[in-house]
Amino acid sequence: MDAIVTGLGRQSKRRLEREARRCKDGALKMRYLIVLNLAGGVRPTMIAKCLHVGRSTVYEVASRFREQGEAGLVDRREENGDTKLDEAYLAILYETVASSPLDHGWQRPTWTREMLMMTMKHKTGVEIHVSSMSRALAKIGARRGKPKPTVHCPWEKRAKQRRLRAIRQILEHLPANEVAVYEDEVDIHLNPKIGLDWMVRGQQKEVLTPGQNVKRYLAGALDAETGELIWVEGEKKNSLLFIHLLWALTQHYPDAKRIHVILDNYSIHHTEQVKQSLLTEQGSRLKLHFLPPYCPDHNKIERTWQDLHANVTRNHTCRDIDELMRNVRSYIKRRNRQMKQELQIAA
Prior knowledge:
Elements: H1 2-7, H2 10-22, H3 26-39, H4 44-51, H5 55-68, H6 87-98, H7 113-124, H8 130-139, H9 157-172, E1 178-189, E2 215-223, E3 229-234, H10 239-252, E4 258-263, H11 272-277, E5 286-290, H12 301-313, H13 321-346
Parallel strand pairs: 1-4, 4-5
Antiparallel strand pairs: 1-2, 2-3
Helix pairs in contact: 2-3, 3-4, 3-5, 4-5, 6-7, 12-13
């Protein structure tokens, strides 16, 4: 250590201090601080404790500085040769993460970094450390998330695509005197949905549940052009709730020659009551377009219901269903005002 202290002049010390202040590489900055503290007479044990490194690291940095000077502090990993995490490796890793471990002979249905390391070694011949796998996953934008449950559509692919194409054609060539909406229902529970939230270390937030659950239901229609949400409320999710929404649409669009309603195949949409309501004078303006079974991604109102849960119902603290429904109405009204303002700005 004495050689470092005696070999570091005032100008050299000032230069190292400037470099340490400018440095954005945390590891390199740590090495500068080790040398500066050694030059100031601080004992290696104290330096290791203050910088949260091992004493061996302090001695290694000192040795490199004595042998090579300031150049010895620079990271030398670029001298290790070509990186293992090249574009080809990352492309194969991307495809691997997107698949299931079961597709690669594993008995476990979810990936671990260790399993990915062994699978990638078998596929590419490249062996990396678990920390390198973490960096590789970050490079391809992988994250640990909750998968979305889905149900396979029973229709043949050709029939499914034909129905979706027909609906898309309606939306793309909609006359000026016609409107199109996406329709769906949503459940509002007094017992709150539990969702992710930020918490400080050592603390787990608690969500007080009323215990006895109470439900309300919304039937909504999302305007495909303006994004406005038209909705009705009910204590039961049945055909009358759906018919109530259909009448609300005829009143909301009094001048529309035709109102195209894009919806799923839920049983309440197919009852005799619904069929009879469409035979009336007002009902004749409504045209129902049913999506293929189990295709929620093609019903754009689904995202609106997700936003409703995220902004109102998830982890809520309402004491009764009336308070919760007031919050639901308030959110939808704010959302509709915001959509209207965005349209005015765009125009």
